[in-house]
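Appendix B, record 7
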Amino acid sequence: MGRLGKSIEIKVPPEKVWEMLALDRLPEWEEDTQKNAKSVEYTSEVHTPKDKYRVGATAHMTLNKGDLDLEITESLENEKMAYRLEGTYDGLITYSLEPVEKGTKLTYAADYEMPWGILGKFLDKLFIHRMEEKKLERSLENLKSILEK
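Structure tokens (predicted):
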């Protein structure tokens, strides 16, 4: 299993960062989703905006190549959110928000399973992990740029 992680400080309160973590908002700032997602639609009922963040909320992401199903597994408003990805690739994404003097420290962690068995693990160590780290860095910078306007 692979793991990615990175933190960034954003000069807005945790409530503003939290708003951008809704599954249907990922295409606004997350690089892979921007490039590869054709749509993100909730498959669970959403009656209020808070329903998008509750444990058990689900969404389906149609990608250029394949699909992903997402389910929120942990949600502490303005503090922490985790969701599971299943489909083209599998993983668990966790966002932790911590108030700091000038705004919010956002920490991203991803635990993922590479497809293709031993070959996938080899390719991950060889170059995929570094490539994903760069995309993660750009995604977090995108989010920061949007929120600090």
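Remarks on this record: Residues 11 and 149 are 10 Å apart (CA to CA). The chain has a mean pLDDT of 89.
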